[in-house]
Write a structure and sequence with these properties.
The protein contains seven helices and no strands. The chain is mostly helical.
Length: about 180
């Protein structure tokens, strides 16, 4: 169980110093995501383009690794894995601003997924390749298709809570560092 010991070592290590400029940059990125994620097309350009690529890549990757029945989940898993891996890497290196940026990205992804989920019955969003709607299939399998918009609302709320929490955490870390310097 050497990996558990390694996780304990990382968790006990001090975070690298945080600059005020770093906090402002992360907060500005979060505000940018909040604005574009909730206005107009509800699409954060560049970021959601990457998320879409990770989503589409996730279908065949998870399908090949875990079986055909998982393929439909692979898109959502694909777009969550990348920010989670980035967050874990920065957490391991104790880089607070980089970690917070990855968590902002993760939470912005939740809004994107919620938008797709809320469309499960309406099926109005354009789909890449015109294939099946992932969330129609997933929610039908689970027997909760009628809850698509409610579940999406909760997921959107989780994205907001996570976004605000990580910016709050980063601000708290920075202020704590300032008090002890």
């Amino acid at each position: 169980m050497a990996w558990i010991e390694r996780l304990r070592e990382i968790a006990a290590a001090e975070w690298q110093d945080i600059s005020g400029a770093g906090v402002v940059a992360v907060a500005a990125f979060a505000v940018f995501c909040m604005y574009f994620g909730h206005t107009g097309e509800r699409w954060v350009h560049v970021l959601d383009g990457a998320n879409l690529a990770f989503h589409e890549a996730g279908h065949p990757i998870f399908g090949l690794l875990l079986g055909e029945s998982i393929t439909v989940y692979g898109g959502t898993l694909g777009q969550l894995v990348f920010p989670l891996v980035a967050a874990a890497a920065f957490w391991g290196r104790r880089e607070a601003c980089s970690f917070a940026t990855a968590v902002v990205w993760l939470n912005e992804n939740l809004w994107n997924i919620a938008r797709y989920m809320a469309d499960a019955r309406a099926r109005e969003l354009p789909l890449v390749g015109g294939g099946e709607h992932d969330w129609t299939e997933i929610l039908t399998r689970w027997g909760v298709l009628h809850l698509d918009t409610a579940l999406a609302g909760w997921l959107r709320l989780a994205g907001w809570a996570g976004m605000l929490a990580v910016v709050g955490w980063l601000t708290w870390r920075w202020r704590s560092d300032q008090q002890w310097s």
